[in-house]
Design a protein that fits this description.
Elements lengths: L1 H13 L7 H4 L2 H143 L8 H165 L2 H151 L4 H7 L17 H16 L5 H5 L2 H15 L1 H59 L4 H12 L7 H13 L3 H16 L6 H7 L4
Length: about 700
């Protein structure tokens, strides 16, 4: 200030020659107004600079919030990717389990189809046997018709012989001469009657045995009918099971189609997700690049604000200097005015005015530069605002995409839950199928036991039938002997008949061909009772009188009726016994065939039950293995330890029970592991790590 004041007279002296500026033409009040305007402009510039700084702070905070939101989005994206990977792993596991269940269902279907074919073959065999039995029955009916025709013919012969006997009785004349011979014949007749009684009793016992055999045959037929009914029931059950299996196959096909659709959806979702990931990564990279650019611009703006602050401080210092200069100018102006008024030194005043004009020009230049800087800062702020708005729109877009990804994830989760429920349904159906297979095995076991019982009963009946056949053959042999003796006696009596007609006529009806005619099936129980009653009466009459023998027609007719009724049964029972023997032989042959077929069927059933038991054990082992899926890491370590060379003796043998409990191995597999462990323990001293490397595929 003192220097300036000291230099004022010199400036005033030199101002006279300098040209006058605009400030020289201004009055004092105008200069004061001009200076006040400049001060107000400086204050406005300061205010604008403060506003710019506040806006920059706000934009920096918004940028930090946008960066935090981007970090949150990236974290959500990473969590979504991890969740998607977990879901894909679960889907792969579900697909594997569904494939295993489908394989098991196909195996069960094949087993049941084989069983159905075997049961159909057995049913066809039973149908063939039934047809054979019907043919045999038709043959027996034809034989019975032929026997009935023979019975009618023999009855006609009996009537003829009775007529001959009546004619012979009418021709009787004298009997006194032949009384002794008649007595002999009576004794023979009594003996023959006794033999006939014994034969009739034996034939009655044989009839009873035949009736028992028939009842046993009917019981076996009823048991066969029961077995046929049981087979029909089993075939119905098998048809129902086949239908159920077809329904299960349709369901499994539908489930497979649904799984294929789900897989295709998941693949499309994964493709879309991959493309979205790529787009998101690109957008994130672009956003990161933009963020970096924004950070660079923020740093530039910060540097610019620092520079503006320094400029503002410099402007403030300048304004203060200008204010001080203005005050000094005021004082000098007063001094100059006083000097002017006193000395009228116009030249110094002009110099001061020129200096003031220069300072004002400099201030105007600084104000112009500050305005330019302000406009540049405003442009930068507008660009920053536009970038912030763009980033906000991108953030909204990212949020929208993340919401869409979450919706897709929710839909995939719903689909996974649906597939999980379907898988659980498949597991439940599989358990039901296994339970049904178990019930089928139980039914097969019961059928097998019933078949064994039937075989035992058939074998017992066969032995009984063989014994009865032997007894009947013996009785038939005895009856044949008696018949041959009776035929011999008849032949002898016929040879004696031409020379002695009367006694032969008296005895002939008892040994005529009438005894071959009747069938025991054609007689009623009344005739049997009458014959038994007559036999009882004959046993009471020991010696009939000579008159009754020679001339008593009633007694002769009674004896003839008795002998006819008694002798009618013997030859026909022989034929029937032969037929029954043939039928029994056929029945025994049929039972043998049934036994052989039942043995083969039993073998097939045993093989099927063994196969079903193995399948059930395999399914149980698979279910037990699924329980140990949580310990897969432990199982992996055990397997690796089993494959590595032994550090301690018999280490692999100690690991076999652990592998058996976790993998549910069969007995053969355990034996294979034991043999492998023994071989490894034997070859352990000579082996090295190189052999394991070669064995493991590392060579």
């Amino acid at each position: 200030m003192s220097n300036q004041e000291g230099s004022n007279p010199e400036g005033a002296a030199s101002a006279g020659s300098a040209p006058k500026s605009k400030l020289d033409s201004l009055s004092r009040e105008d200069l004061i107004r001009f200076v006040k305007k400049q001060v107000e402009n400086n204050k406005e510039v300061k205010k604008n600079a403060d506003q710019v700084q506040n806006e920059l702070k706000i934009k920096a905070e918004e940028l930090t919030s946008v960066q935090s939101q981007l970090e949150v989005c990236t974290n959500e994206k990473a969590s979504l990717s991890r969740r998607i990977e977990e879901l894909t792993g679960k889907l792969e596991f579900l697909n594997m389990s569904v494939a295993e269940s489908n394989n098991e269902c196909t195996a069960n279907e094949l087993i049941l189809k084989n069983k159905i074919t075997e049961f159909e073959a057995e049913f066809q065999k039973t149908k063939d046997e039934k047809g054979n039995l019907e043919q045999q029955n038709n043959k027996m009916l034809t034989e019975l018709e032929a026997a009935n025709t023979l019975i009618l013919e023999l009855r006609s012969q009996v009537d003829d012989s009775q007529a001959e006997a009546v004619a012979l009785r009418e021709r009787r004349t004298v009997a006194d001469v032949f009384s002794l011979e008649i007595k002999d014949y009576e004794k023979k007749v009594n003996n023959l009657q006794k033999e006939l009684k014994e034969a009739v009793a034996s034939s009655a016992s044989i009839r009873e045995e035949l009736a028992n055999l028939k009842s046993q045959h009917t019981s076996t037929k009823s048991s066969q009918e029961i077995l046929i009914k049981e087979k029909d029931d089993t075939l119905k059950e098998l048809d129902r099971l086949n239908k159920a299996l077809l329904e299960e196959g349709v369901r499994s096909n539908e489930i497979q189609e649904e799984l294929a659709q789900v897989k295709s959806k998941l693949n499309s979702i994964e493709d879309d997700r991959g493309s979205e990931r790529i787009e998101l990564s690109r957008e994130v990279a672009e956003a990161q690049r933009k963020i970096n650019e924004l950070e660079d611009t923020v740093t530039i703006l910060r540097d610019e604000t620092k520079r503006l602050r320094t400029d503002r401080d410099a402007a403030e210092t300048r304004a203060e200097d200008l204010a001080k200069d203005y005050e000094s100018f005021k004082s000098r102006a007063r001094f100059v005015l006083e000097q002017k008024s006193k000395q009228d030194a116009q030249e110094s005043h002009t110099e001061e005015i020129e200096k003031l004009e220069k300072t004002l020009a400099e201030l105007q230049e600084t104000i112009a530069t500050l305005k330019e800087n302000r406009s540049g800062l405003q442009n930068d702020l507008s660009r920053a605002r536009e970038q912030v708005v763009h980033l906000e729109t991108e953030n909204r877009k990212y949020r929208r995409e993340s919401d869409e990804a979450q919706l897709l994830l929710a839909t995939t989760m719903d689909e996974l839950r649906a597939s999980k429920t379907d898988f659980e349904k498949n597991v439940i159906e599989k358990t039901q199928l296994s339970a049904h297979l178990h019930s089928l095995t139980c039914q097969i076991d019961t059928l097998k036991t019933h078949n064994d019982k039937v075989e035992h009963l058939l074998s017992a009946e066969r032995e009984k039938n063989n014994l009865k056949i032997d007894q009947l053959e013996k009785q038939i042999g005895e009856e044949r002997k008696l018949r041959e003796e009776a035929v011999k006696q008849l032949d002898d009596s016929r040879k004696e008949r031409p020379s002695r007609p009367a006694p032969v006529a008296a005895v002939y009806p008892q040994f005529s061909d009438r005894e071959y005619t009747p069938d025991y099936r054609c007689h009623s129980t009344v005739s049997g009772k009458l014959s038994n009653a007559t036999f009882g009466e004959e046993t009471q009459v020991h010696e009939p009188s000579l008159e009754d023998v020679l001339f008593g027609e009633c007694s002769i007719q009674e004896s003839d009726g008795q002998t006819c009724d008694e002798t009618e049964h013997c030859p026909m029972t022989y034929e029937q016994l032969m037929e029954e023997l043939e039928n029994l032989r056929k029945h025994a042959q049929h039972t043998r065939e049934l036994l052989s077929e039942s043995e083969t069927a039993n073998g097939r059933l045993i093989e099927q039950s063994r196969f079903l038991k193995e399948e059930i054990r395999r399914l149980e082992r698979n279910d037990e293995r699924k329980e140990h899926l949580e310990n897969m890491e432990y199982l992996k370590n055990v397997i690796i330890k089993f494959l590595t060379p032994e550090r301690v003796a018999s280490e692999k043998c100690q690991l076999i029970p652990i592998l058996n409990t976790m993998l549910r191995l069969s007995h053969d597999e355990v034996e294979v592991l034991k043999r492998a462990a023994d071989n490894d323990s034997q070859t352990a001293p000579g082996t090295s790590w190189g052999s394991y490397m070669k064995w493991g595929g590392f060579s």
